[in-house]
Structure formats: structure tokens, C-alpha cells
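Morning!

This is the sequence you dropped in the shared folder:
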Amino acid sequence: MMLNNNIKMAMASVRATRWRSLLTVLGIIIGIVSVVTAVSLGEGVKQQVIGQIQDLGPDLITVRPGKVVNRDKQGKIESINFLNLLGSGTLTEQDLETVQKTEGVDIAVPLSLVTGTAKTDSREYSNGFILATSPQLLEILNKKIENGEFFSVADEKKSVAVIGKRVAEQLFNENIPVGKSFQIKGQTFIVRGVMEEFETSPLAPNTDYNTAIFVPYDVGKQLGGGQPQIFQIL
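The structure's back. C-alpha cells below.
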């Protein structure tokens, strides 16, 4: 009987203050939905980042030029130089050699930017960028060639290239231009392969490697006049 009386009193109280009860229920619903949404979004981003890191490998380190963080004698961060993230500084071949000789480093791959435009007899491609790198890039990025093959150590002095999917579509108007040629600064390159699709990575969200042309490091160095612009070491 007491339970029935309590229920009747509760219902009478709700009916007497309908608007207040409605707003209370609405507030509870909004609060629960907000928490569930925030947790779901956070978990989704977490799983995406973890998945992309696992694709690249848990032991990949990216080295970029610029001193972003200033520390005191105890190693505590004193200030952060965000402008260095936007700087145009480059790494040197001595930096690359230092990384290669560092204990625990198995592979060190340079990414050097080469200025220039890719051209064929009928098209010009200026929407991407040209990168000089070493044959170990595929291994360190855990990527595959969709068509053809990547250049090898034996090709380090040859004018060959591996291109991203957007380059194949826009420069050659086809998906498999393996064996076809194009020019960079008057030098003819042969397409050795086409990379599989790259996904945007949180580690480099502004870099779309689908628009990249990869050439051997020594050849890219020659195109740059012997002064490589190494912007990143993997």
C-alpha cells in the first residue's frame, strides 16, 4: 500500500508541475546524449589514429627541421615556438648521416623536395610535388606498389620515377602509365610504378602523397643543383 501511495503522490506532483518536470526530463536526456556523443567521437578518433599508426608501424620516427620546444636545465618545457612548424628550414646530409648512425636505427630514409614541373608532350602537372628519396621508402611507410615496381638500389643513378595515383590520372589520363615518359627540367623520366592509394595521416595531414612524384635521391640531388632540400627524415 505504501508503494502505491508513493507512486500516486509522485504522479500527482508531476502533473502539478508539468513544465518543470518536462524540462527536468529534457535536461537529463540532453546530458546523456551529449556524454554518449562525446565519448563516441573521442573513441572513434582514437581508433582511427591507432589504426593509422599501426599501418605505418609503431617504430616510425619523423625528424623535421626546427627547434619547436625550449627546455630549462631540468628538461622542463619553457616555451613552444609554433612558428618553427611553418619554417622553411631544411635538414642536411650530415643530419641524415647522424640519424643513420644512431644506435637502434635500422633504416633512415630522406625526403628531399625538388622544385620543378612534370610535363609530357600534351600535359603539364603542377598540382603536386617531386620528392627525392631512397628505395627503402616503401618498407618504412609499410606501403605497396599497385602497378609496376619501386626503384631499387641499382636504379639510384637512373632517371626513373614512381608516381601517386592522382599524378597518373592527371598527367597521363590513365591509371597504369608504367613505362611511359615525362620530363622534369628537360630531363626524361620513365614511370617505373604507381603507388597504392595513400590515406590522409594525422602525422602529416597537409601532405597528400597521392600527388607526389618519387625519384631516386641522387637523381633528385642532381636536379636540385647538388643542394638537396631535405625537409623530413623517416
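Headline: Residues 56 and 142 are 6 Å apart (CA to CA).

More detail when I'm at my desk.
O.
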